[in-house]
């Protein structure tokens, strides 16, 4: 009988904690919806002010990408990977690719994605781990 009472009281405690968690979650969701509405209102105001000032808002300003590039962490513009390949020596490493102008701030995954595209296209051959060689152009 003693064991039944303790499990009953622990079950009651679990239910109370669960109710408190559900209540906190409901309040949090309500707060998030209110903040979303406020943010949407602020964005509409931003668009109106931009129109009054005569400037056009770019889509990426809303996503936050403009702030990153303003700090200089994300280079702007697309990379012409064929041009990058042309600037590399016959045998090169990923570090050589990074030395090409405009690629210093690129993430390693982007550098290796470019190298992989060159390999898939047949422009580059992998010699050893981390070492690559340009193939003769097929014109």
Per DSSP E runs of 2 or more residues, the count of β-strands stands at 3
In CATH terms, the superfamily of the largest domain is Winged helix-like DNA-binding domain superfamily/Winged helix DNA-binding domain
Output the structural class.
Answer: mainly alpha
Helix-residue proportion: 55-70%
- Tell me the Rg in angstroms: 28 Å
User: What's the rounded overall pLDDT mean?
Assistant: 81
Q: In percent, how much strand structure appears in the residues?
A: 5-15%
Principal-axes geometry comes out as flat
Keywords:
mainly alpha; 6 helices; 2 domains; 3 strands; 3-stranded antiparallel beta sheet; Arc Repressor Mutant, subunit A; 139 residues
Describe this structure in words.
The structure is a single chain. The protein has 139 residues and is mainly α. The chain has 2 domains: 57 residues; 60 residues, Orthogonal Bundle (Arc Repressor Mutant, subunit A), CATH 1.10.10.10. It has a 3-stranded antiparallel beta sheet. Strand 2 and strand 3 form a beta hairpin. The termini are far apart. About 9% of the residues have low confidence.
């Amino acid at each position: 009988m003693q064991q039944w009472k303790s499990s009953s009281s622990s079950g009651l405690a679990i239910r109370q904690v669960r109710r408190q968690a559900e209540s906190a979650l409901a309040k949090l969701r309500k707060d998030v919806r209110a903040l979303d509405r406020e943010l949407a209102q602020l964005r509409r105001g931003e668009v109106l002010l931009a129109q009054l000032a005569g400037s056009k808002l770019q889509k990426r300003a809303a996503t936050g990408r403009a702030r990153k590039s303003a700090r200089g962490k994300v280079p702007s513009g697309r990379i012409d990977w064929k041009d990058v390949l042309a600037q590399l020596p016959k045998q090169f490493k990923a570090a050589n690719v990074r030395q090409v102008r405009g690629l210093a701030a690129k993430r390693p995954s982007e550098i290796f994605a470019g190298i992989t595209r060159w390999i898939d296209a047949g422009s580059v051959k992998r010699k050893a781990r981390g070492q690559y060689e340009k193939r003769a152009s097929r014109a």
